[in-house]
Write a structure and sequence with these properties.
The protein is of the alpha+beta class and about 120 residues long. The chain is built from 3 helices and 5 strands.
Length: about 120
């Protein structure tokens, strides 16, 4: 093997090793972000005095089922409107609706949005 071939192989090998390290996250520069349960924004929904926390954007039909609400389902696509319930004063179709984000008012955050 010639000197030129040996040096080029060595350069390719070290370039390959440095490329591997280029795509792995560095531990010294990566920010350590930890979220606690108090940092997560959860929406409190209430029904007949029963309160539960739900993730905003999760399916409303699952939230209703865990609270004990049994809306009527007919089409299960949101076309007929038979599953319409009231969440915090807003009418929402339970079969296709999502859990709303946490309200900004402190009193509603503590009491929770009422489902009727």
């Amino acid at each position: 093997m010639s000197k030129f071939a040996f040096i080029s192989c060595l350069l390719i090998f070290t370039a390959g090793v440095s490329m591997v390290h280029a795509f792995t996250p560095s531990r010294c520069f990566a920010p350590q972000v930890r979220t606690t349960s108090t940092d997560l924004k959860m929406t409190v929904l209430t029904y007949n005095g029963k309160k539960k926390d739900f993730k905003p954007g999760s399916p409303l039909k699952n939230a209703c089922a865990s609270l004990g609400v049994k809306p009527k389902y007919s089409c299960k696509k949101g076309d007929c409107g038979s599953c319409t319930i009231t969440v915090g004063g807003t009418r929402v179709k339970a079969c296709v609706g999502k859990v709303p984000p946490e309200p900004r008012l402190k009193s509603l955050q503590e009491k929770g949005l009422e489902i009727k």
